[in-house]
Design goal:
Elements: E1 3-4, H1 17-24, E2 31-33, H2 36-44, E3 54-56
Parallel strand pairs: 2-3
Antiparallel strand pairs: 1-2
């Protein structure tokens, strides 16, 4: 298990923190795990006291932002 998404990176400039919170909202508190099979085992064995959303790292796909938008 990697951990909560919000703990896996740092924001270099504080002025962007509010924008990130607005865009990502509650997704910042989802838990990143290595694979979808690990996520399945954790959920099957009720490893969390409350409902959690798990993000399998092997299912994350990068999306390139078009240059004209940047």
């Amino acid at each position: 298990m990697k951990g909560r998404l919000i703990k896996l990176f740092q924001i270099k400039e504080d002025r962007y923190a509010r924008a990130l919170e607005e865009v990502a909202q509650g997704r910042l508190y989802q838990i990143v795990v290595d694979t979808d099979s690990i996520a399945a085992v954790l959920l099957k064995h009720n490893c969390f006291p409350e409902r959690e959303t798990l993000i399998p790292n092997n299912k994350i796909q990068a999306v390139q932002v078009p240059q004209d938008i940047i």
